[in-house]
From TrEMBL, chain B:
<keyword id="KW-0472">Membrane</keyword>
<dbReference type="GO" id="GO:0016020">
    <property type="term" value="C:membrane"/>
</dbReference>
<dbReference type="InterPro" id="IPR045198">
    <property type="entry name" value="CNBL1-10"/>
</dbReference>
<comment type="subunit">
    <text>Homodimer. Interacts with CIPK.</text>
</comment>
<comment type="similarity">
    <text>Belongs to the calcineurin regulatory subunit family.</text>
</comment>
<feature type="domain" description="EF-hand">
    <location>
        <begin position="67"/>
        <end position="102"/>
    </location>
</feature>
<dbReference type="InterPro" id="IPR011992">
    <property type="entry name" value="EF-hand-dom_pair"/>
</dbReference>
<dbReference type="InterPro" id="IPR018247">
    <property type="entry name" value="EF_Hand_1_Ca_BS"/>
</dbReference>
<dbReference type="Pfam" id="PF13499">
    <property type="entry name" value="EF-hand_7"/>
</dbReference>
<keyword id="KW-0479">Metal-binding</keyword>
<keyword id="KW-0677">Repeat</keyword>
<dbReference type="GO" id="GO:0019900">
    <property type="term" value="F:kinase binding"/>
</dbReference>
<protein>
    <recommendedName>
        <fullName>Calcineurin B-like protein</fullName>
    </recommendedName>
</protein>
<dbReference type="InterPro" id="IPR002048">
    <property type="entry name" value="EF_hand_dom"/>
</dbReference>
<keyword id="KW-0106">Calcium</keyword>
<feature type="domain" description="EF-hand">
    <location>
        <begin position="148"/>
        <end position="183"/>
    </location>
</feature>
<comment type="function">
    <text>Acts as a calcium sensor. CBL proteins interact with CIPK serine-threonine protein kinases. Binding of a CBL protein to the regulatory NAF domain of a CIPK protein lead to the activation of the kinase in a calcium-dependent manner.</text>
</comment>
Length: 25, 213
């Protein structure tokens, strides 16, 4: 059984939190 | 020239002097002006009113204006400091400043806490973490059983809720992220260090004479 991840680790992978795409033209 | 520019910039409600914004943030005057180029392009993408509405923000973030995303909504709401349903230029710069590599870690921690405190009541509660986790799972087409979701939530609260009161308060959060610094990676945008090279056209539109930095 794989080790459980912390919810915040998973959440921080959301595309909606990756503001870097604002700078991609 | 000056007359032309001041007239055009009046079309941007909430436009603020780049020198003043630079003095309040980690950005140089040139970087604030480069951010104005970015702001202009986002703010005219759907409605050309000099402000960024939610649809424009989603379009800039996802290249799709109809993509609903809980986290993008949260970021938008926090950037919309005046809670008018739109982001003006001053708030755009000050909000992005939190993501600057040189911004104080404390500001980043506070912003992330607000981001995850969906109800804004000063605590990150289990139901909020569950809501975010389910949103993330549906966004990424990841399937987990209800039991696994509950186990992840249990683990999350064992890790972060130091005083075991069932909710994460600000000091729990500060403590937790200091032990898990990778969680703060999303709070720093290296792009902000190269903003003048990403948007070089700011030079032609600059209002400020003899840009120093």
């Amino acid at each position: 059984r794989p080790a459980l991840m912390n919810a915040f680790e998973l959440i921080s992978t959301s595309q909606g939190l990756n503001l870097g795409t604002l700078f991609e033209k | 020239m000056g007359c032309f520019h001041s007239k055009s910039r009046r079309q941007f409600p909430g436009y603020e002097d780049p020198v003043l914004l630079a003095s309040q943030t980690s950005f140089s005057v040139s970087e604030v002006e480069a951010l104005f180029e970015l702001f202009k392009s986002i703010s005219r993408s759907v409605v050309d009113d000099g402000l960024i509405n939610k649809e424009e923000f989603q379009l800039a973030l996802f290249k799709n204006s109809k993509k609903e995303n809980l986290f993008a909504n949260r970021i938008f709401d926090l950037f919309d400091v005046k809670q008018k349903g739109v982001i003006d230029f001053g708030d755009f710069v000050r909000s992005l400043n939190v993501f600057h590599p040189n911004a104080p870690l404390e500001d980043k921690i506070n912003f992330s806490f607000k981001l995850y405190d969906l109800d804004g009541n000063g605590f990150i509660e289990r139901k909020e973490v569950k809501q975010m986790l389910i949103a993330l799972l549906s966004e990424s087409d990841m399937k987990l059983s209800d039991e696994t979701v509950e186990l992840i939530l249990d683990k999350t609260f064992v890790d972060s809720d130091v005083n075991h009161d069932g909710r994460i308060d600000k000091s729990d959060w500060q403590n937790f992220v200091s032990r898990n610094p990778s969680l703060m990676k999303i709070m720093t945008l290296q792009y902000l260090k190269d903003i003048t090279t990403t948007f070089p056209s700011f030079v032609f539109n600059s209002e400020v004479d003899d840009i120093a930095t």
